[in-house]
Write a sequence for this structure.
């Protein structure tokens, strides 16, 4: 009887071990959209656009949190490095889109990612010692490669080395 229980336990344990070992890799979310089908940006607003790779954020909630944490950390670094303690902040959020599972544009490698866009009234506040273009540039250099800034002001675009038409 005791040996039967052991054999039965070993059989169940090996079955569970096999089932765990043969799990498929994490799947891409259903309903992934192409970048071309995402809504256009609203002119006259600053846009913070994140393309978080799916392997870095398994859910939309994680992608959103990673974006906000990265933005706040970059603002804190810029504040410390350039603004004598003044806190760099963006203006009021006007709209958000996502996070939504999407394939990045071909120019970015067409990899599966979470697309998340935060659109805010233009301008950065809290730093009296620097021009806004330099602040955007400093902020961009402190962000992960998957977040880009599209300022509303054409002069700020030029400072970032971007085209003047977003």
């Amino acid at each position: 009887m005791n040996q039967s229980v052991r054999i039965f336990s070993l059989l169940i344990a090996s079955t569970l071990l096999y089932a765990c070992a043969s799990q498929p890799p994490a799947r891409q979310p259903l309903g992934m959209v192409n970048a071309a089908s995402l809504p256009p940006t609203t002119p006259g607003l600053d846009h913070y656009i994140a393309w978080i790779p799916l392997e870095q954020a398994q859910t939309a909630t994680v992608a959103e949190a990673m974006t906000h944490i990265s933005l706040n950390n970059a603002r804190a670094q810029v504040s410390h490095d350039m603004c004598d303690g003044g806190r760099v902040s963006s203006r009021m959020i006007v709209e958000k889109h996502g996070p939504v599972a999407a394939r990045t544009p071909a120019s970015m490698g067409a990899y599966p990612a979470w697309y998340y866009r935060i659109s805010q009234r233009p301008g950065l506040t809290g730093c009296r010692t620097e021009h806004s273009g330099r602040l955007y540039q400093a902020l961009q250099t402190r962000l992960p490669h998957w977040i880009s800034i599209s300022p509303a002001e054409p002069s700020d675009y030029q400072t970032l080395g971007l085209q003047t038409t977003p």
